[in-house]
Amino acid sequence: MASKIDVTNLPGATPRVEAIKERFIKVTPEICVERAQLITESYKETEDLPIHLRRARSLEKILNGMTVFIADDELVVGNQCTKPRSAPVYPEFSCKWLEAELDRLEKRTGDVFLISEDKKKTLRELFPYWDKKTSNELATSLMTADALAAQGAGVFTVGNYYFNGVGHISVDYAKVLANGLNGVIAEAKAELAKLDIADPDGLKKMHFLNAVIISNEAVIAFAGRFAAEADRLAASESNAQRKAELQEIARICRKVPAQPAASFWEAVQSFWFIQLVLQLESNGHSISPMRFDQYMYPYLQMDSAISVEKAQELLDLLYIKFSEINKVRDEGSTKAFGGYPMFQNLIVGGVDREGEDATNDLSFMCLQATANTKLYQPSISIRVHSNTPAELYKKAAEVSRLGLGMPAYYNDRFIIPALLSRGLTREDARDYGIIGCVEPQVAGKTEGWHDAAFFNMAKVLELALNNGADALTGKQLGPETGDLASFTSFDDVMKAYKTQMEYFVKLLVVSDNAVDIAHGQRTPLPFLSSLVDDCMAKGKSLQEGGAHYNFTGPQGVGVGNVGDSLTAIRKLAFDDKAITLAELKKGLETDFAGVEMESMRQMLQNRAPKYGNDNEYADMIAHEGALIYCREVEKYTNPRGGRFQPGLYPVSANVPLGTVVGATPDGRKSGTPLAVGVSPVSGVDQSGPTASVKSVARLDHVIASNEIGRASCRERV
Length: 717
Hints:
The protein is α/β, with parallel strands linked by helices. It is about 50% helix and about 5% strand. A hairpin with a 3-residue loop joins strand 5 (about 430-435) and strand 6 (about 440).
């Protein structure tokens, strides 16, 4: 690690950073209607155009028409809405839920948004145009009745992309910094020149590539609007220092992102324009910078004029910009995604594409920026491996001590082999970053569809013990596989669980693929697609399978509950014969009401081994329960030519998914939260953290490669 900066003594937050942060913190999130107005106008004007061109013209309309402003003391400019931290509206994805919730936005318990009566009136006048035109409505029409019934009962939810954009991606920021958007436009024109438009595929590709050109030109013009605003402010600015800053902002915005960056400030501003417009186009969250320290470091190195203090200040200001990004979710989704999260994950450290340590000065400065701003965005992460410098560990530990819950730590030794098992090249696997919460992928090449669904494994077990009927409503949801009292062996229990799993995973795939198809047909994203390999070469948007790597990643929820429930049945009913299945069935049906049933609940909780205590008996049953889900998921393909890959984490969906699951054989009461991620059920891990880690390690994290865990194989990274 060659260093020109004393990374052990990085500067703290400047007065400018503190003032802008304090101003940001005081802002209450609001709903902004500008984007909804502009895209509705555009769609009315372009009804005769192919969808790719409609999408490009709508982005152009938004970027040309929305309010732009430069706040006091800002050095990094670019706003999403008329006010920082406000949320735009994306009616082309869905709007019926928002129309129904307009009067509750200021009153709901999670993620409150202010909205004036005038703005409500504006949206209510716009929404009728979108009736039967949204990606959400097309997805619904493509789903089967059984799939919709399973969603309604809480067996799984695909709401993340059902109502919103996909996001969960990292683009090729390095290409923009090195070549500018003019380089992207030139690439699109070169691909256009190769086409034979007499070929039907060539004609479709032509429209997509023209949409790419329009979109990129619109982003360049958008940056030009900030240059003009900076010039306007500079003309009347009396403070000489601020006047000079505004003039420099104007110069930079005239240059980037159209042209290559040649300084650190230019690189930061170019990056921010890309990050901002991706949000304005897509309505997705988890649009992640990923390996920011790798592609930004050359511009810090080449900038001989910048001081470490100024570079750190620019980085700190960029972090505040990350936190200004916001989105409004439906009230149900706020229970799974609470706290206005956008999950923009920035990761430092790790190895490079050749397997050598990639730590640099900017790795430390990114961690320092988290310490200086203490905001929830970006989500800071660190990659570690056998040659990670001790200084980086120390810096990360200093940030951890602040109590922010960051950084998250990721081990190259195990993650890289997991990605190799999914078909990535070794160089690409080494170049992984983290999307959103904990999802690994390689930037600029992947459409991963992480968090495509949250799948309620505990509900499936409940159905397996109740002959396929919903214990809470009595409705027959799944195949008839026998009820709990009818089973004569533990193998019968597992057979029923596996059969129900096969049935409901298939319905999950039907639902996810319906949403996937709808995004491709109604909401392709030409600007985003232009920054991901191999969309332009294929002449396809990301949503149609243009990316180099394509996956769909639903998350299994309730591993601990399924494991402990199956363990309790096997140990207490079949091995020890301490209870009968008929008695257990009565306990589940009554939610363990009464003294006798409560006594049995205590037995279930205290006499059966529990996952999370390094108990091989319990851990291997949990392993099998999770593996049955994972093996079913990976059988399937998606509409983009890729495969499904399972994951095992809930964000916070374990809470709402628990409300639709009745009492379970681990002693859990009806409606209470499920276990978090692959962690043990709360309170049952009595043997210390090391034992819990060893239990978690017995799960197969290679097959569950849509999230990060411990891989069960070892290869040289």
